[in-house]
Amino acid sequence: MGEIIITYRSLERVAYWIAIVVLLVLLIMSYVGDKNCDDAEEITAETDDDVEAGSDAGEDDETPPVVEDDPPEPDETCTDGIENQDETDVDCGGSTCDPCAEGKDCSLNRDCEEGECKSGECDATPDLSGDVTVEIVGTPQYTANEDTNVAKLTELKVKIENGEDSMFRGTLEMWVKSPNELYYLNQPMGDEGEGSNPYAEMSISSIASGASLSKTYTDDNFDQGYLFSLTGDYVGGDDFWIEVVLYDNDHSLVDVAKKKVTV
Prior knowledge:
The protein has one helix at residues 8-61, and strands spanning 116-118, 121-123, 132-145, 150-162, 168-177, 200-207, 212-218, 228-229, 239-248, 253-262. The protein starts with 7 loop residues before the first helix and ends with a strand. Mean pLDDT is 78; it is low at 188-193 and 232-236. The strands form three sheets. Strands 3, 4, 7 and 8 form a four-stranded antiparallel sheet that branches. Strands 6-5-9-10 form a four-stranded antiparallel sheet, with no helix packed on it. The chain is of the alpha+beta class. It has one helix and ten strands. Among the domains are: 81-125; 132-262, Immunoglobulins (Immunoglobulin-like, Sandwich).
């Protein structure tokens, strides 16, 4: 077998070629790396362009949402089932709507269709005074004969209020009296002196508890046809009195009302 002899020169040549190979490998690797980076940058740029173009296209194609305005508020009325305007309860009370029924909320008496506003609620229960009263409303009307000075009543308005807790029935008598209220003038054909019979007598059939009765009597109600004189010593003035006397069913005196009439 032959002997292999390695000299320094041989080693030097081997090292030289190894160095050349290594340099070639490094150059190749450097070239490939730069190429890959350039390709990656191009791909990234193209991707960004595509994304941006897609975004722009999406913005152009997308329809903006329609924003609807809130519907207008309905008009406030007295029949909308809502307590609005200046109503004190639903659809009643206040200055616009009709008054409220009993039991509904209120602020003033005008907010209630009947009764009063008590503690913020319409209350139709009357406050009873415990008395039955009568009053003459307005001025009684009469006609007179200028030649004889004999007069006759033609109209009388009265109002009776029942403040008791039960039904009232009774009788209303009407008298004509002198200015000093000492003489009755309601005698037939103007006879002077103390009257024994009323000028007229009217029956009061029934007035419920807490209720009132307003009545206008005319000459048709004065069926006795009594006249009264406007002259004589006992008259002595330019006026006379109308007196109404209210009795209950037992003919017990209940109330009296008077009104002066100027001749």
